[in-house]
Amino acid sequence: MDRKYVVRLPDEQAVFQHFLDSIRNIRVDESRGSPSPYKPMVLYVVLEGIGNGTISANQIPFSYIREHFQQLARDHEINAEAQQAAYAYYHLKNDLLWMLCYKNPLQRIQPPASVQSIEQLVDCATLQDRYWHVLKGHPERCREAQSILQSRFADGTRRHSFWWVNQGQTWSQESEGSFIWAPQQNDQGQSFYHWENVGRVRRGDIIFHYNDGQIRAVSTAVQDAYDAPKPVSFPESRWNDLGRRSDLHFEYLSREIPRDHIAPAIRDLQLPYSPINGSGTVNQGYLFELNDAAAREIAQHIQLEGLSPALADVFRRLLGSQPVPPTPLRSRTTPMDNVILYGPPGTGKTFHTSQLAVELCDGRAEMDNELVQRRYRQLIDEGRVAFVTFHQSYGYEEFVEGIRPVLVSDDDRTETENISYECRAGVFKRLCLLAKATRSSRRETANIDLDDIAIWKMSLGDSNDPSEDRVYDEAIENGFLLLGYGDGLDYTNCDNRDEVLARLRTKKEAESNDYAVTAVNALKNQMSVGDLVIVSEGLTKFRAIGLVEGEYQFLGREYYPQARRVKWLAVFDESLPTETIMGQQFSQATIYQINRSKLKLDALRQLIARDPDDRQEAPRFVLVIDEINRGNISKILGELITLIESDKRLGRNSHPTGASRLEYKELRRVLAV
């Protein structure tokens, strides 16, 4: 029987690291105006008590917190009283760090929490057992965690500033590099306030990026601005080489905001130094400070679901709504096969799928969202993660497989195309086939740099003619590429297309555009040792990948006599869809060099990367299903609904003979939202 959830006991250092990650991500409360880091302060007090032995049992009464919290606030000149301590004491349970023990389980606090309700109803708070065990008796760990929390005091007591930056000729350099930069002076020694503003940017500030008539991105300053030389990627200008720079975390908007949607409202605010002038157009200048009212006019046009939770919460507070609590996620120490995220709209379910997908594939994920997104995109490019959205019109044909029209020509010599129909794999079957392919029979391996070689498509026999199956079988068995064109002639001494044509004319009349000339010349003269060859099966599948190892050979026979030696890197038990490695289907031609821009190189690398003798775990694959509740499940899954029960899958004792011809047991990880 498959186990969907397997509990693995982690070592102490891993648990402590998880605790540090958790406290780094505690939300600083801003619900009452200026940010006030009450929760980090409460945890700081708790760690102080654990570290010095004052708290000797995992029972933390509010009376202890109240006394030491107020002293900490006085020491750091933070305006906080017992009520703020009660608020944090109650809400820390939402960060999955501790739980409250009630005096009477039937009498619980109804938010908002108050000092009186905490003292009357709550006996104590208890840390998660695993955190308590790695902290108790380890004052050095408590001090390390306290240093992280103390940094939140300084960061949490300053409000966000909002900025508008105009980016014209430097947009591509600054957006790709995630920064803004302005000179301190021009070549005449002049300075301007909108340049000097860059030096005022502080960590946590929010910048709206204007380019080409619209707000295209929003960013967060990751550190205070600093002096920096002009970036080498910038164009030549009359600017001074010394300037000021702010490094940013960029988030591109899913829907850009045209200037006309926001300019009239910002103009009417009559800011002292406004990015919008009286005519509703953009003022010349670089960086302009916005007040909350101007920032609010922009924020109301932003689709918050496309932003990181932290930035989305900044805008929710700006717009007067409450921040969305973080979606509780299963601990990284517990591996998962099938996961369902559920909750009301806007709680970050879809946003969290990228992090969970990375965790499911790699076993872990970085805490930095930028690094998570980078790895998530890489996994998609490799074909290891697929994303699909269910809706009422979505069905079996799109998800599993269905008949699709394709354009084909009669043969290699004509450009006339006809419509044909074939069964095409859907997103689920494609991912399953790719997962299965990583466990396919592999003949040999090689270190290949796909950036420096040509990649070819070649047919080995006519896949629609059963009598030519032996061509493919012979090629795989003996390590050859075989070509039937050339009328049985030897082209060993033909070093260019003209010589190939002349040789062919010794046996028959041939025109310069005869495809036999094209095919033989490609195999003999254009293909090189070290090139990669993808063996097709029809126009929509491929079944092997090889590395060219030898020069042209003539086999001295009538039947497929043209050959080259090849090392088979991957031979697939079941052919894969071309969508796995290309953005389109193959062309009808027997042999041609593939346009690199059409290839998914990361996915191709994934198919030829593993050593067949490597005993490490095979790569994991994840399917993310968004809006799973909106689809008609029986219509989408069809007969596969039987296989939801793992013991009914192919290869299991309870598998009913003939119940399903589809081998979809390879994909073990499904993430539904």
Please sum up the structure shown.
This protein is an alpha+beta fold.
| Rg calculated over all Cα atoms | 32 Å
Tell me, briefly, the overall form.
globular
| Alpha-beta classification | alpha+beta
State the CATH superfamily name of the domain at 441-609: ph1033 like domains
Oligomeric state of the chains? single chain
Level-2 CATH architecture of the domain at 441-609:
Roll
Distance between the termini: 25 Å
Q: Count every beta strand, where a strand is a DSSP E run of 2 or more residues.
A: 21
Please summarize the sheet with the most strands.
7 strands, mixed
* CATH topology value of the domain at 441-609: ph1033 like fold
Q: What portion of residues belong to β-strands?
A: 15-25%
Q: Which stretches are low in confidence, meaning pLDDT under 50 for 5 or more residues running?
A: 1-10, 30-35, 322-335, 410-414, 611-616, 657-668
Q: Overview of this structure, please?
A:
The structure is a single chain. With 673 residues, the chain is an alpha+beta fold. Among the domains are: 12-156, no CATH class; 162-302, Roll (ph1033 like fold); 441-609, ph1033 like domains (ph1033 like fold). Helix content is 31%, strand content 21%. The chain contains 21 helices and 21 strands. Mean pLDDT is 80; it is low at 1-10, 30-35, 322-335, 410-414, 611-616 and 657-668.
List keywords for this structure.
673 residues, 6-stranded mixed sheet, 21 helices, ph1033 like fold, disordered N terminus, alpha+beta
